[in-house]
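Hi C.,

You asked whether I'd gotten around to modeling the 253-residue construct. I have! Everything is below, sequence then structure, no commentary in between.
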Amino acid sequence: AYLDVSEITDETLTATRIAKAIRAQVRESLDITVSAGVSVNKFVAKVASDWQKPDGLKVVPPDEVDAFVAALSVTKIPGVGAVTADKMHRYGLRTCTDVRGWSLHDLRRRFGKFGVVLHERARGRDERLVKPSRVRKSVRVERTFSEDVSGPSEWAPIIERLYVNLMERIEAAKAWHAIDKAFIKLKFNDFTQTTVERVGTKAVEADYHDLLVEGWERKARPVRLIGLGVRLMDDGDQVSERLPFPDTSLAEY
């Protein structure tokens, strides 16, 4: 999720303080950790948010954006998957600094329209606006573990807590009427991942235990991340969720 705070005029409400306050409120209200990134645009903020997962805050000030982006692997650019990364590596493009060495013309010739994106992101530029009215398609919760979970025998209490958190989010989003599917996500210790869905469910806890076992049996490896969620029907665009700021002063953060 993105939050644009560029139009806030109160000097005490800095982006960093707001991010700290949101993380603290999520931890207190839902008993889960979240990571946040603060920077000048969506691209840099997203990369920063991944920097210290599962529980961290990375701030990239405007005067540090150029150096920060220059050192990034091209795989950090959204849209650069395994196939595109392999193609870029064959051309010697491994970091954003490498991409900067190519002209826009050459990037477009080799990568088509996506060459424009590569040209801009490699320079830390991203003109996309934050759109707060985006249609909600799902509600989910995830937990990344500092130590791998071996399998179903260990995760029962974890699932119970995640399920409670999911129900709280569904309630906060007023999404009960729009639930279409229950789904789970597992990321294994080899960094592969799988998802399993069940249609026509009321998202009861037993569904998630069944789905998780089904997903785990696909590889039967230790698990690094577990996610539970619901997909919403088309009328889910009525759904919105707002996290109010805590009553305490942001000066405390």
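If it helps when you're writing up: The chain has three domains: 15-63, 71-121, 138-236.

Thanks,
B.
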